[in-house]
Design goal:
The structure holds two protein chains of two kinds.
Chain A lengths: L4 H5 L9 H4 L33 E5 L15 H10 L4 E3 L8 E3 L7 E2 L5 E5 L14 H13 L10 H5 L22 E2 L5 E5 L7 H4 L28 E7 L3 E6 L19 E5 L4 H9 L5 E2 L7 H8 L2 H4 L2 E2 L2 E10 L9 H10 L2 H7 L7 E3 L26 H15 L4 E8 L5 H14 L2 E8 L11 H6 L4 E6 L6 H9 L18 H12 L3 H17 L3 E8 L2 E2 L4 E2 L3 E2 L4 E2 L5 E2 L1
Chain B lengths: L1 H32 L4 H5 L9 H11 L5 H14 L1 E4 L4 E4 L6 E2 L4 E2 H36 L4 H15 L2 H15 L16 H35 L2 H8 L4 H29 L3 H6 L5 H10 L3 H29 L6
Antiparallel strand pairs in B: 1-2, 3-4
Helix pairs in contact in B: 1-13, 5-6, 5-8, 5-10, 6-8, 7-8, 8-10, 9-10, 10-13, 12-13
Classes of the chains: A alpha+beta, B mainly alpha.
C-alpha cells in the first residue's frame, strides 16, 4: 500500500520514457568489472564481489524506521533492511530486473490444493536463529498471529493474513488471548517443519503475501510485544545487535547462520558489520554519499533536488547513480458515486482534459519527478502492459473531446454548471502544483474545482472518509499508491475493488464497484498460471480506465547513489531501491 | 537570605505549573479548537485500518476522554507520585519524576531525556566556554583600543556572526574542513566523552564553533559597550589617578564591573542552550534534547513533547533563580 510517500516524492531524474532500458548496455551483464555507469544498477550487478564478512557497511537516512519489529512496520525501506536480519517463508530472488519469487525459509513455493483453498509449506532443514536455537513452523505461525491478530499492540504492519485466512474461532491475538493453545483456524502446524494455511477464497498470489515480514519467525517465549523491536531475535545472516530509536541500528555478521539451510545463498553476510544511522539531516546524507562518508541512503528516497544537478552534471558521479522507477503511482481519483461524476461521460471528460505533460512539469519534470503514466500498474509490477486508452499527442490532453463528453454529460444530467472539490496533501510539496494544473485543465472545460489541501495524517477524516467527501462534494483527489507486494492483486485490489471501499480509511477513493473488474479479479485469483493471471491484471487495469475511475499521472523515479566502494549493488524492483542484503563494501 | 530563597523556590514551582498548563493547552486542547477531535488526534497511533475499539483505547490511554482539568491534575500528580503504564503486553512502572510514557517509541519520557542530555550538555559546555571567552576578550580589546583597526575588525566580525545563522555556517565550515580536506569528522558523527574523549573533542569542534560564533558576536558587542561605559566612570579615573598600572585598571577595576551584567545574560543563554540547542542539533544530526523536541513534535508524541518542554523550562527557571540568588548575595537591596 502506501510506501513512505517521502520516498516516492524525492528528487528523481529521468531520461523521460524508457530510461530503464538505457542502463544495461552490455545486455544484462551481471558479472561486470568496473561496470559503473549511469543506470547500470537497474539491469546488472555493479561491482560484483563474493567477499564475505568484510568491513562495515554504513547506511544513513533522514527519517527513522517505522519499526525494526518485522510485525510492526509498513515501510518498504524497513522491509528491505529487515531481510538483513530476518528470513520470511518466501522472498525475492537476488537479481536485478523483473521481480521473481523464490522460497527462503520454505523449501518451495508451496503446494496448493485442487480447490485453491489450502496451501502447504515445509521449512528448510537446519535453519536456526542467531543464538543457535532451531526455527520451527510454530514460530512462523506465531509471527503471523502476533502481527495480524495482535494489532492492539503492533498496529502498524499489514494484515493480509487476517483477511485471507479462515478464523472460525474468532481468535483474539496472542496479547489478549494468552493461551498458547489458541490459534486462528486458518493456520495449522502439524509438526515443526510443516505449516498449512486455509484460505477463505482461492488466492493465486498467496506466495506474494508470504514475502511480507509477517512470516518472519518469532519464538513465543522471546516475544515482549511492543518492545520486541529493541532486541529482535535474528533469523538472517546478520545478528540484530542493538537499535536506539532516532539514533542507529547495529547489525553484525551472525556466527551461527547455517548456510546449508540457505541453498539459494540469499543470506550472505558480505559485510562484517552494518551501521544504519537514522534521523540524519537530508543534506548531510547527500554530502556523506558524495564524499564517501556513508555508503547507502537507506530510505531509498533519492538525493535532494540540489544534489541532483550536481550528480547529473558530473560524469564521475553520474556513473555512480541509478534512476529507477520507484513503483509509486501518482494519480487523480474520480469518485464514481458523487454527482455528476456518477455519469461516465463526466468522468471521461476529466480523462481527456488533464494535460499530463503539464502535470509532469508541475511534479518536477522528467528530471526530478517521473514518467508520464498511462496505466494503473507501474512498469515494474508484473501484469503491466503498455497501453493508453486516452492517447493524445504529447500527452497534453484533448480539449475538443473533453468538451464533447462534458456536453453529453450535462445534457443527460440536466445541469448547466459543474462544481466540485479536488483534495491533495499539503505536506507533499509537489501535490499543490499538480492540483493547480488539474484545476486549470478542468476550468477549461467548464468544471469549477476548488482545492482542498490537508495533511497526510488527516487522510482518514478527509478524502478517506465517505461522509466527508459526500458532504463536501469532493469527487476528485490527488494521491499516490504503491503495492505492498509486487503483483497485480497487490497493486490493484485495494484501489479498484469493493475491498477498498470503507466508511473511513478508504483506499478505493473512486468507490469503483464494477462487476467486470470484480469478476476479472476473482478469475485472476483462481488462475494458477502466472502469465494468464498477469494478462487478467492488465485487463483489470484497462477496465478501470474504460470506467474512467482514475487518471494515472506520474510513475515516480528517484535518483540514487551507489558510491564506488559499494559492492553487489543493484535495484531490487520489489522495493524500488537497492537490495540491502546483497551489499558489501570494498 | 533563606526566606528569600524559599520564596523564590515557591515561585519556581508555580512557574513550572503554569508552563505545564500552557503546554498542555497548546498540545492537547488547541488542536480541538481547530476542529480536531480526540478521535482524529488518536488515529495516527492505530495503523492503517483502525478499528473503533483501537481508537477508543488510544483516546483513553492519552486521557482525552477525561475533562481537561482532570487531565492536568493527573499529569501533575503523576510527576510527583509516579504511576504504572501498560504497553499492551506488560505493565511498566514509571517512578517519580514520571513525565509519562511515549507510546510512539514504547519508552519512558524521563529516561529518554536523560539519555539525550549528555549530547546537549557537551554542546552547551564547550560552546559556552568558547563564546564567553572570545566574546569577552574581543569586546575588551575593542573597548580598550576604541576606533583602532582591531576594534573595527572585531565589530565587523561580530556583525557577521550575528547575521550568519547556524544552518548556513555549518555547511560553510563542514564542506572544506570535513568533506574536502577531512580535517574534522563529518556532521552527524558523535561519540560519548567517556568512550573516546579525543574523538568526542574532534566531533564537537564544528558544532561548538557554529553555535559559539553567533553568541560570541553578541557578547563582544555587550562587553565593548559595557566596558566603554565603565571606563568613563569616576572610579576608573580615580584608579588611574592613584597611579595604578593600566593593566590593573582595566582587569581589576573596569572589567569586573562590566562583567556583572554579562554573567547574568550568560546564565540565561547557557540554560536556553541546555534546554535544547535546536538548530545546532538538527544541522549536525546530534541527538540531544532539541532534536528530541523536534522529532516528538513531528511524530505527534504528546507525552514526549510535554516532558521536553517542562524540562527545558525547568532549566531556564532554575538558571534564573541562580542568577537572582547571586545577585542577592552581591546586592542586599534585591532581597527586599
Amino acid at each position: 500500500m502506501h510506501k513512505p510517500r517521502i520516498a516516492a516524492y524525492a528528487a528523481a531524474a529521468a531520461l523521460a520514457l524508457g530510461a530503464a532500458a538505457c542502463g544495461g548496455g552490455s545486455s544484462g551483464n551481471t558479472g561486470a568489472h568496473g561496470s559503473a555507469a549511469y543506470n547500470v544498477g537497474l539491469s546488472g550487478i555493479v561491482n560484483k564481489s563474493p567477499a564475505t564478512g568484510h568491513g562495515t557497511l554504513r547506511l544513513e537516512q533522514s527519517s527513522d524506521l517505522q519499526s525494526t519489529d518485522p510485525g510492526n512496520s509498513y515501510f518498504g525501506a524497513d522491509w528491505d533492511v529487515m531481510r538483513l536480519y530476518t528470513r520470511s517463508l518466501v522472498t525475492f530472488a537476488e537479481s536485478p530486473g523483473p521481480v521473481k519469487l523464490v522460497p527462503d525459509l520454505a523449501t518451495d513455493l508451496g503446494t496448493m490444493s485442487a480447490d485453491g483453498l489450502t496451501w502447504t509449506f515445509h521449512l528448510v532443514k537446519g535453519a536456526t536463529y542467531t543464538d543457535g536455537s532451531p526455527i520451527t513452523a510454530q514460530d512462523v505461525a506465531y509471527g503471523i498471529e502476533r502481527s495480524n491478530w495482535g494489532q492492539e499492540v503492533l498496529p502498524n504492519g499489514p494484515t493480509y493474513f487476517k483477511q485471507l485466512l479462515t478464523d472460525t474461532t474468532n481468535y483474539q491475538g496472542p496479547y489478549t488471548d494468552k493461551n498458547p493453545a489458541d490459534h486462528p483456524s486458518g493456520i495449522e502446524t502439524p509438526d515443526s517443519d510443516t505449516i498449512v494455511f486455509h484460505l477463505v477464497k482461492p488466492f493465486a498470489d498467496f506466495d506474494d503475501v508470504l514475502t511480507l515480514p509477517s512470516t518472519v519467525p518469532v519464538p513465543r517465549a522471546k516475544d515482549t510485544g511492543a518492545t520486541y523491536y529493541e532486541h529482535v531475535l535474528s533469523s538472517g545472516a546478520y545478528t540484530f545487535d542493538s537499535y536506539a530509536v532516532g539514533k542507529e541500528l547495529d547489525l553484525s555478521a551472525s556466527p551461527n547462520f547455517n548456510a546449508a539451510s540457505d541453498p539459494l545463498r540469499l543470506h550472505v553476510a558480505h559485510a562484517a558489520r552494518i551501521v544504519d544511522k537514522v534521523d540524519v539531516s537530508a543534506q548531510t546524507v547527500d554530502q556523506d554519499l558524495l564524499h564517501g562518508t556513508t555508503d547507502v541512503d537507506q530510505s531509498g528516497a533519492g538525493v535532494q533536488t540540489a544534489t541532483q544537478s550536481q550528480v547529473l552534471g558530473n560524469p564521475r558521479l553520474k556513473a555512480e547513480a541509478d534512476d529507477p522507477i520507484t513503483g509509486l503511482l501518482t494519480y487523480l481519483t474520480i469518485n464514481t458515486t458523487i454527482k455528476p461524476f456518477d455519469n461516465i461521460d463526466c468522468r471521461k471528460a476529466v480523462e481527456w482534459a488533464i494535460d499530463k505533460s503539464a502535470v509532469q512539469t508541475a511534479f518536477g519534470g522528467g528530471i526530478g519527478g517521473g514518467d508520464i503514466a498511462t496505466t494503473v500498474l507501474p512498469p515494474t509490477v508484473p501484469g503491466y502492459v503498455q497501453q493508453d486508452l486516452y492517447q493524445t499527442p504529447g500527452h497534453t490532453g484533448d480539449l475538443a473531446k473533453a468538451k464533447a463528453e462534458i456536453a453529453t454529460c450535462k445534457a443527460a444530467e440536466h445541469i448547466t454548471d459543474i462544481t466540485t472539490q479536488v483534495g491533495y496533501y499539503i505536506d507533499q510539496p509537489k501535490d499543490k502544483p499538480v492540483a493547480d494544473v488539474v484545476q486549470q485543465n478542468l476550468a477549461a472545460i467548464g468544471i469549477t474545482a476548488t482545492e482542498d489541501g490537508f495533511k497526510y495524517s488527516q487522510l482518514s477524516i478527509k478524502a478517506g472518509s465517505q461522509s466527508y467527501v459526500k458532504q463536501n462534494n469532493e469527487a476528485l483527489f490527488i494521491t499516490a499508491w504503491a503495492a505492498d507486494f509486487p503483483s497485480g492483486y497487490g497493486f490493484l485490489d485495494q484501489i479498484l475493488t469493493p475491498d477498498g471501499i470503507k466508511p473511513t480509511g478508504e483506499s478505493n477513493y473512486s468507490e469503483l464497484d464494477d462487476p467486470a473488474v470484480d469478476s476479472l479479479m476473482a478469475t485472476a485469483l483462481k488462475t494458477t498460471d502466472p502469465d494468464a493471471r498477469n494478462a487478467l491484471y492488465a485487463q483489470i487495469d484497462q477496465q478501470a480506465l474504460k470506467d474512467a475511475a482514475l487518471v494515472p499521472m506520474i510513475d515516480s523515479r528517484a535518483l540514487m547513489l551507489r558510491p564506488s566502494n559499494v559492492t553487489n549493488a543493484y535495484i531490487e524492483q520489489a522495493y524500488g531501491m537497492y537490495d540491502y542484503q546483497a551489499l558489501g563494501v570494498q | 537570605m533563606l526566606t528569600f530563597i524559599v520564596r523564590r523556590l515557591f515561585a519556581v514551582v508555580g512557574l513550572l505549573l503554569v508552563v505545564a498548563l500552557v503546554t498542555m493547552v497548546i498540545f492537547y486542547e488547541m488542536p480541538q479548537w481547530g476542529g480536531q477531535t480526540p478521535a482524529t488526534m488518536a488515529v495516527q497511533y492505530v495503523g492503517k485500518q483502525p478499528s473503533p475499539a483501537a481508537i477508543q483505547g488510544v483516546i483513553h490511554r492519552f486521557g482525552f476522554d477525561r475533562s481537561f482539568p482532570v487531565q492536568y491534575i493527573d499529569y501533575i500528580r503523576t510527576i510527583v507520585t509516579g504511576t504504572t503504564f501498560s504497553d499492551g503486553t506488560q505493565d511498566i512502572a514509571c517512578h517519580a519524576p514520571c513525565l509519562g510514557y511515549s507510546f510512539r517509541n514504547y519508552q519512558q519520557v524521563w529516561p529518554t531525556i536523560l539519555s539525550d542530555l549528555p549530547v546537549t550538555l557537551s554542546i552547551a559546555v564547550g560552546a559556552g566556554v568558547l563564546w564567553l571567552f572570545f566574546g569577552v576578550a574581543s569586546g575588551l580589546a575593542s573597548a580598550v583600543r576604541k576606533g583602532s583597526l582591531l576594534d573595527r575588525a572585531s565589530m565587523v566580525t561580530a556583525l557577521l556572526g550575528i547575521s550568519l545563522p547556524v544552518y548556513f555556517l555549518a555547511p560553510l565550515l563542514s564542506l572544506p574542513l570535513a568533506y574536502r580536506w577531512s580535517i574534522l569528522p563529518a556532521p552527524g558523527s558523535y561519540v560519548g566523552i567517556l568512550s573516546d574523549p579525543g574523538q568526542w573533542f574532534l566531533d564537537m569542534i564544528l558544532p561548538w564553533t557554529c553555535l559559539a560564533f553567533g553568541l560570541a558576536a553578541l557578547y563582544t558587542r555587550l562587553t565593548r559597550a559595557g566596558m566603554l561605559d565603565v571606563l568613563s566612570e569616576d572610579f576608573v579615573r580615580t584608579a588611574r589617578a592613584k597611579g595604578l598600572s593600566e593593566r590593573r585598571v582595566i582587569f581589576k577595576h573596569a572589567l569586573r564591573a562590566a562583567l556583572t551584567p554579562i554573567i547574568t545574560i550568560f546564565g540565561m543563554d547557557f540554560a536556553t542552550v541546555l534546554g535544547g540547542a535546536v538548530l545546532v542539533e538538527i544541522t549536525f544530526s546530534m541527538k540531544g534534547i532539541g532534536f528530541l523536541a523536534i522529532t516528538s513534535i513531528q511524530n505527534g508524541d504528546f507525552p514526549m513533547m510535554m516532558g521536553v518542554t517542562l524540562f527545558a523550562a525547568a532549566f531556564i527557571v532554575l538558571a534564573n533563580l541562580l542568577v537572582d540568588v547571586l545577585y542577592a548575595v552581591a546586592d542586599p537591596r534585591v532581597r527586599l
